[in-house]
Design a protein that fits this description.
Elements: H1 3-13, H2 21-45, H3 47-67, E1 72-80, H4 87-95, H5 97-103, H6 114-123, H7 125-135, H8 138-142, E2 144-148, E3 153-156, E4 161-162, E5 167-168, H9 182-192, E6 193-197, E7 204-210, H10 213-252, H11 256-278, E8 284-288, H12 301-326
Antiparallel strand pairs: 1-7, 1-8, 2-3, 4-5, 6-7
Helix pairs in contact: 3-12, 5-11, 6-10, 10-11
């Protein structure tokens, strides 16, 4: 037998098998199944590590959640109270707009949104500083850490403040002082205070969160009372200055039309003074007043524990898998 014949015979004995796409897919599925089984086997072998880590996290989260003080939230629903005061000035603007320009008086200024202005005043540092001084809330804001239900008393952090001696004891580095500054207090207050306005209805919700439900309720009441008072005083002072100015302008002009306009303006400013004198709720009307909340607002302790357990389970599984494949 020649070499050529021997080679031909060997070729005839070889069988070539072509793998179809279905066979490739079946092979890939088998590999994936093997990989998943391997991963599950690794997790099962490391189950005691996973259980131990998850249990530690669960116990730690329970202690952490129980250590958190209850936070109570009190809120009040308010409505703008200044709509009826804007009609007179708006009418004058249409009736005497030209004469007002000759007299140097801007009637459009009477259309200012007092509600938006009052909200911005509530958020301002100047209003907050006066609020702190008037009601002496700094210890309750910066040092209160818990509330005793049976005696309705606040518990203070003695490393920050000693209520028996009304003394600030916290240790800080310059430029800070033991007694917190208004900037520090304002930053802390903004975490507890919120004001939201519904753009469609115009209703405003003012809320305070605190460890004491009584303190939360009192602060909301004081905020509403103080902002109405501040805006009332501002309007009275501005109206009185306007009246004095208009009287001076009347004494200097002989034009009947201008005098008519100026007297009309004085009448409108007198209405503002009247509203300010007879109405305590000058800017905000209380629709639903603040109450002492009976139920805590936060923390959600069950959710804290559940998230901690979930996180521990995920982390422990990752640790087991990384440890296995790194030494494989």
């Amino acid at each position: 037998m020649t070499d050529k014949q021997s080679s031909q015979q060997s070729t005839d004995n070889v069988q070539f098998v072509a793998l179809s796409p279905e066979m490739y897919k079946s092979q890939n599925n088998a590999d994936e199944e093997i990989d998943l089984l391997e991963i599950w086997a690794v997790i099962w072998r490391g189950k005691w590590i996973i259980i131990a880590v998850t249990a530690i996290f669960a116990i730690a989260s329970v202690f952490y959640a129980l250590s958190l003080a209850n936070i109570y939230k009190s809120e009040a629903l308010l409505a703008p109270a200044n709509e009826e005061q804007q009609g007179g000035i708006a009418g004058l603007a249409g009736q005497f707009g030209g004469l007002a320009s000759l007299a140097g008086v801007n009637l459009d200024g009477g259309k200012a949104d007092k509600t938006s202005l009052a909200i911005e005043v509530l958020k301002s540092r100047a209003f907050f500083a006066k609020f702190v001084d008037k009601h002496d809330i700094l210890p309750d804001l910066m040092a209160a850490i818990d509330w005793e239900l049976t005696s309705n008393t606040l518990i203070y952090n003695h490393e920050i403040y000693l209520p028996e001696r009304a003394e600030w004891t916290r240790e800080v580095k310059p430029p800070k002082n033991p007694k917190p500054s208004m900037q520090e207090a304002k930053k802390e207050f903004d975490k507890l205070f919120s004001i939201d306005q519904n753009k469609e209805s115009g209703m405003i919700v003012i809320s305070i969160e605190h460890v004491s439900p009584m303190v939360a309720k009192n602060w909301v009441d004081w905020l509403v009372e103080d902002i109405n008072l501040v805006m009332k005083v501002r309007e009275k002072e501005e109206a009185q200055r306007s009246i004095d100015y208009l009287h001076a302008q009347i004494a200097e002009t002989n034009i009947v039309e201008q005098k008519t306009l100026l007297y009309q303006l004085i009448e409108e400013q007198a209405k503002i003074l009247m509203f300010a004198e007879v109405r305590d709720e000058y800017v905000f009307k209380t629709i639903d007043p603040a109450i002492v909340p009976e139920m805590k607002f936060k923390p959600q302790r069950a959710l804290i524990v559940m998230l901690a357990v979930l996180l521990a389970g995920i982390l422990s599984v990752l640790v087991v898998l990384i440890r296995y494949f790194s030494i494989r």
